[in-house]
Each structure stands twice: as structure tokens, then as C-alpha cells.
Design a protein that fits this description.
The chain has 209 residues and is of the alpha/beta class. It has 8 helices and 8 strands. Helices cover 36% and strands 17% of the residues.
Length: 209
């Protein structure tokens, strides 16, 4: 297995701004929200193999069967070993726009949250609502299971065809709304957007406040 990456090794947005790895946008129209120092201390954007993260929970881009597939889904199942599939077989699948949680087995993360994102061309106008549901349900499952750190793969942006820019906007807005609810920010130390492809990382950096 590749070298693992601990939470302490994953920079927050605050640190990236300080190091000038990212710069505040001059275009105030890019984001619905103003920057928040508190949230910037809790959010990370990285380009990394999500199976290497030694954190509390990673979010798999699963299909409705929860029995594995291609891309990040297949990579997570391979890295976790057969125990993950055995547990997934007991879950009776998952609806699009929702998520279910399992143990991490041989992964460095303690839990895997399996989120089923929408197929963009199939769901049409419902895509944003369903994608937001994936992020929201995943955050709720993390908090309910005592997870203080969670990393999301770029849900639906692969073969499901969701444009990276639109998807990152939904993800950022959903996470921000969740953390701004009373008491929620105290229950999560870090929310990580973990991208495998450059296009997805670029979309986040373009859309963060």
C-alpha cells in the first residue's frame, strides 16, 4: 500500500492562503458566500489517493448496489480487502442521493461512507438536490458515528458525468450550510475534498470563497 497521509499532514485552506498556494479571488461573483476564517480552518482541498488517508472516514463514490465498481469505488474495495464487500452485501444497496456507512477494514481510515451520486444526464434538474443529499447524509453519518474528520471523493464527476465546477459548488455550499448549523462545527474537526484528477481540484480552488 502507498504511504498513508495523516490529518496533520493535510493543509487547511487557512494554511494554503498563508503559504500563497491559493489566493483570494478578485471576482466576488464566483461564490455565494464570503470567506470564513473559522471554516477555512476546518476545510482542506487536496489531490491525493483517498485510500491513503489515515483519518476517521472517507466517502466512496459508490453505485446503488454498494458492491464495488470502477474508479475510486473499485480502488477503495481493493484496498479495504474482502471484509468491506461482505459488510456491503448486508446493506441492501442504497438509493441515489443518500449514503450508508461501514468499517474501513484494511484501509487506514476507520470508516467508509458509501454515497450514491446522481448520473448527471439521467437525473437532469434533480441532480443538484441529489448530490447535495449525498454530502449532507455523509456528514450526518460521520457525526452520528463519532467521526471527527471526513474526506470526500469528487462524487459523480467521473463516468456519472457531473461537471466538476457545478459539483464543487454543490459540495462547498452543502458542507458550509451543515457546519453553520448550531453545534455542527464543533463535531467535525476537518472536512477534506480529496480529488484524484486535476480538473476536480481546480474546480474547488476556483469556487472556494
Amino acid at each position: 500500500m502507498a504511504d498513508t497521509l495523516s490529518l496533520d499532514e493535510i493543509p487547511t485552506l487557512t494554511l494554503l492562503y498563508k503559504l500563497k498556494k491559493i489566493v483570494p479571488s478578485d471576482d466576488k461573483g464566483q461564490s455565494t458566500y464570503n470567506a470564513s476564517a473559522t471554516l477555512n480552518d476546518k476545510i482542506s482541498v487536496i489531490r491525493q489517493d483517498i485510500t491513503t488517508l489515515a483519518i476517521d472516514a472517507i466517502v466512496n463514490a459508490a453505485n446503488t448496489s454498494l458492491l464495488g465498481g470502477g474508479g475510486v469505488d473499485g480502488a477503495i474495495h481493493r484496498a479495504a480487502g474482502p471484509g468491506l464487500l461482505e459488510e456491503c452485501e448486508t446493506l441492501d444497496g442504497c438509493q441515489t442521493g443518500s449514503a450508508k456507512i461501514t468499517d474501513g477494514y484494511e484501509l487506514p481510515s476507520k470508516k467508509v461512507i458509501h454515497a450514491v451520486g446522481p448520473i448527471y444526464w439521467k437525473e437532469g434538474s434533480r441532480s443538484a438536490e441529489l448530490l447535495s443529499g449525498c454530502y449532507r447524509t455523509s456528514l450526518e453519518l460521520a457525526v452520528e458515528n463519532g467521526c471527527k474528520s471526513i474526506a470526500f471523493s469528487a462524487l459523480s464527476t467521473g463516468v456519472y458525468g457531473y461537471p466538476s465546477g457545478e459539483a464543487s459548488t454543490v459540495a462547498l455550499e452543502t458542507v458550509r450550510k451543515f457546519l453553520e448549523e448550531e453545534g455542527k462545527a464543533d463535531k467535525l474537526d476537518r472536512v477534506i475534498f480529496c480529488n484524484f484528477l486535476q480538473k476536480d481540484e481546480d474546480a474547488y480552488f476556483k469556487n472556494i470563497p
